[in-house]
Structures are given as structure tokens and as C-alpha cells.
Amino acid sequence: MSSARKTAFVTGGTGFIGSHLTEALLRRGYKEVRCLIRSKPKWLAGQDIVPVRATLMDQSAIAEAVADVDYVYHLGGVTRAPTWDALYEGNVTATLNLLRAVELANPSVRRVLITSTLAVVGRTSGRTADESTPRDPVSRYGQSKAAMEDAVWKQYGLRLPVTMIRPSSVYGPRDRDIYTFFQSVNRGICPMLRGDRGLSLVHASDLVRGIIDAAESPAASGETYFLGSDQRVSWSELRRAATTTLQRRAFPVYLPRTLVPFLGAASELLGRMLGRYPPLNREKAAEILHAAKICSSAKAGRDFGYHQKVPLRSGVAATVAWYRSKGWL
């Protein structure tokens, strides 16, 4: 099937990774890209997409949206919330609602691609995670995504052509998580965790290319894949790339691991006082200390030729240039 004839339905398209995916689908010449939009289009504003004004809890609207598409890309979900119920509803219930709608309205869909996370792995005794690594998530977010994976495979693994993707840490234009690292470096301070082994860090353009290739690959149906970088990135390497691009000197501040839980608790308390749930919280602190941060993408390389294409330095340079263009730095 040529790209010009392909159609897709995307959830999470208004977010960081989802907006990059939507743009990549359009660049590949997809005939039509439908995007679930709950309120504002955000990064999708001005894009040649078909907006679907609904939520994943609106099954009739979702069934109509997926009725005749070739591919479903499910990137929507909840990355942080103060309660288990909110995480379960956003990551498990919403995903099952989507799959129920697909099975009802479009059982012959070519592929349903679902994004999970490296956080499902959790503790690994320091070794590089691959798809055979047992899961032991340390945060409620990781646990909710693990519950989502289990429910998907149990209920729909034999009924729909599903591919599960677990991205590593992701950076690039529009990201607000690793952005805080660049903010600190720009101010002349580089926070570093003592004894940290680094991480698998993938640029958004590499990740979304891998997501589309996985969805379109016959070999990937019924499979789970990590998508990350070809090599581990140390925080020292990331600091050098950032200081070179920003033309700043950044003094490394090494944080003892025992301090991380207190920072998470203090940030969560402050967030509660301000009426929000902050990115750094007790759950995130547990992930920083104990969860796997390094994964292998070898299986994706074997099955559909996935490899990192964006080198760290050029990826950081392009990301910083975007932050500056938007006044973020």
C-alpha cells in the first residue's frame, strides 16, 4: 500500500511525541491523519490533520473515528498523577476502550501501535534491559503501564494486530522534562547524580521514525520493542553537548543519592500547596534511584532496521536552537 493511500488515527497527538509523530506521518505522505483532540490543538495548530473532538471514554465517537483507518497510533496516556485510580483510568481503561472501539468498528485494521514505557521494567540490578527482562516497576506510573500491557495482550493479543513500543528517555523540540536540564546548564549549574550510569536517550525524530516503521512492519505484529539510542549516554556527555551548544560554563553539582527522596517529597509538598502535581515527586524520585534507564534496541534493529540516526551533539544543538526560538532559553 502506498503512503498516499494510508490513513491513520492518532491519540496523544497534541503532546510532545505525538505531535512529532503526526508531522512524520504527514511527511510520509499519509492521505489522512485523524487526531484525537480533547480541548486545544496545541502543537497541531495549523497542521493538515482531521481533528476528532472527543475523549477515549467516548466510545461511539472513537469507533466512528477508527472505522476505516489503516493504522491506529495510541500515544495518549497519563504520565503523572497523584492517585493510582487516575493513572489506571488514563493508561489502562482508556487503552482498552480504544481497542474495544477498534475491534467493533474496524477489526481488519492493519496495525494498532501502542506506546508503553521503559518504566515498566523498574529494577534490573544495573543491567541493560531488553524485551526478555522481567518487569519490576518501582513507580505507580510504571505499574499502570505494566497493567496496561498485560490487559492488552490478555484481551486483544489474539484478536487485533498489536505492536507495543517502550520508548527510552526522549528529548527534542517541545520536550519539557529534559528541558529543565538545559535550563540549569544555561544558568551555569549542572545537577548530576553520584554513581549514575547514564541513560538511553533518543531524539524525538528517531523515535517517531521507529514507531512508524514498527507499525508498518509485518514482522512487528504481536511484538514488544524498546526504542532508544544505540549507545548509553552519560550525564557528563550530555553536559558537554549542552555547554558546547549553549556556549556556557556549567559547574557540576553532584547530588548524593540519599538526597533524592527528600527533594521529591519537598517538590510534591510545594506542588500540593500550589494546586498542581509537579514533575519531580516521590514517585519520580523512586524511578531516578531504582528504575532501569538503559535499554537495548537490538530487537527493533533486527526486525525492522531501527537504528539511531541523530547524533547527540547535533540533536542537542537543534533542540537548544528550538528552545531559543520560542524564548524558552
Explain the layout of strands and helices:
Layout (H helix, E strand, L loop, with lengths): L6 E5 L4 H12 L4 E6 L12 E4 L5 H8 L4 E4 L9 H22 L5 E5 L24 H17 L5 E6 L1 E3 L7 H8 L2 E5 L7 E3 H13 L7 E4 L7 H12 L4 E5 L4 H15 L7 H9 L7 H7 L7 H14 L4
Parallel strand pairs: 1-2, 1-4, 2-3, 4-5, 5-6, 6-10, 7-9, 8-11
Helix pairs in contact: 1-6, 2-3, 3-4, 7-11, 8-9
What are the salient characteristics of this protein?
329 residues; 11 strands; single chain; 11 helices
> Gyration radius, to the nearest Å?
19 Å
Helix content: 40-55%
What structural class do helix, strand and pairing data support? alpha/beta
- Tell me the strand percentage band: 15-25%
pLDDT averaged residue by residue: 93
Largest beta-sheet characterization: 7 strands, parallel
Q: What is the spatial order of strands in the main beta sheet?
A: 3-2-1-4-5-6-10
Shape: globular
Elements, N to C (H/E): EHEEHEHEHEEHEEHEHEHHHH
Number of strands: 11
End-to-end distance: 43 Å
pLDDT < 50 runs, ≥5 residues: none
Quickly count the helices: 11
Question: What does this protein look like?
Answer:
By secondary structure, this protein is an alpha/beta fold. Helix 1 (16-27) crosses helix 6 (204-216), helix 7 packs across helix 11 (312-325) and helix 8 (260-274) packs antiparallel against helix 9 (282-290). It has helices spanning 16-27, 59-66, 84-105, 140-156, 179-186, 204-216, 235-246, 260-274, 282-290, 298-304, 312-325, and strands spanning 7-11, 32-37, 50-53, 71-74, 111-115, 162-167, 169-171, 189-193, 201-203, 224-227, 251-255. The model has no long low-confidence stretch (mean pLDDT 93). The strands form 3 sheets. A 7-stranded parallel beta sheet has the order 3-2-1-4-5-6-10, with helices on both faces. It contains 11 helices and 11 strands. Helix content is 42%, strand content 15%.
